[in-house]
Amino acid sequence: MIKNRHKTASFLTIFVILCLNLSAKYAEPAKWRSPSGDEVRGQLFTWLETKEIDESIRAKINQTWSSKASKDLTGTSLLAQLSATCALIDPNASQLIDLCSKPHLKSIPPDQLWLADPNTHPIMANNFRLLYGRWLVHQSMFDKAAKQLSGLKCTDVVDPASLLFYQSVVYHRLMNRAAGLETIELLTGSKGNCPHRYLAIALLMKEDLLGLKDDSLDHIARRMEDIQRRLKLGQAGKRVCNIEDGIIKSLDKLINNMEDKRKGASGENHNRNHPSKPAGDSHLMGGGGSGEVTKKRIGNKSGWGSLPPKQRNEALQQIGRNFPSHYYEIIEQYFRELAAEKND
Fold first, then answer.
1. Which residue, 149, 164, 127, is CA-closest to 47?
2. pLDDT tens per residue, range 67-101
3. Are the C-beta atoms of residues 196 and 104 closer than 8 Å to each other?
4. Are 84 and 98 in contact (CB under 8 A)?
5. What is the DSSP letter of 158?
6. 343 CB-near residues (< 8 Å, 6+ apart)
């Protein structure tokens, strides 16, 4: 009996080992990986050999990028050290690092045309586009960030995890559902290479984008917040007007749908309370109506934004009855600011 138990235990052990080996063999390969400090060091020094650099600066770079010092660098620390090195030999890089060190900027930053210049080496141009794009995201300048981060691939930068994360944030905030989901899928496809903080937020953004539906009240509220963000940044051009027009059409559509549903429900109550066959004298008839008078139709396709206050309040009250209260507050605040803007 004991001998048989030992045989069974040995068989199970072998079976588990085989399963683990097979799962490792056929596991989906990582979709991207982070370069090591030694790899980046080699690329950097190959480029620096073609440049004329002051000997004191070259000595400082050699010390900073010694094999021992750069061995364990990865991700954001690797990007920071590479950027600081570029700043030693290029004034444009130094000025951009100084700009990105400022937590808040009231004015629109100048275009960094040197980043798109073919004469700028890719190791500097690509990684500074990531550095600048990351800062622009923190400034809520998502359109400018999209311009810097667009087209960059994992192999172009020393911190691919940050690249994919900030690209995902831009797509999420600009409500680009398809591109956002695709980028998040790529980011989470190499969990071993991605910081946990990025993974956690990426999964939240994924769930959020999956539940986002066009012309829903959630979608409308987000576009209103996007307009408010743009106006605070001093962006009041054609794109803002187009978004506002889209919001008005979506609100018209949403309110019309709610009106149609309410009319349908009123029709059903009317049919229940007015049967085609008269009731017998000995029966008491009950009413199924709510006891409310059907309100007049609100909103129209030609000018929701210019509705009189009374009609706008009726629409807001209806939205408040059908959706959570914070949507009511967002829409009410939006039209209050819109009215103030027109008065100005």
1. 127
2. 777 777 888 999 999 999 999 999 999 999 999 98
3. no
4. no
5. S
6. none
Euclidean distance between CA atoms 234 and 338, whole angstroms? 15
> Token pair for residue 259?
């009106």
Separation of alpha carbons 288 and 40, rounded Å: 75
What is the rounded end-to-end Cα distance, in angstroms, of the chain? 93
What ranges in 188-216 are assigned the alpha helix state H?
196-210
Q: Which candidate, 107, 37, 125, 41, places its Cα nearest to that of 76?
A: 37
Cα–Cα distance list, 232 to 169, 225, 240, 248, 303 (Å) = 20, 11, 12, 21, 25
Token reading at 125: 């141009």
pLDDT digits (tens, 9 = 90+) for 183-205: 999 999 877 778 889 999 999 88
Task: Give the C-alpha separation, 203 to 217, whole Å.
Answer: 23
Q: Is 102 in contact with 69 (CB distance < 8 Å)?
A: no
Joined together, the tokens standing for residue 116 give 């798109």
Collapsing DSSP to helix, strand or coil, 298 comes out as coil
Note whether 232 and 104 are within 8 A (CB): no
198/161 Cα distance (integer angstroms): 8
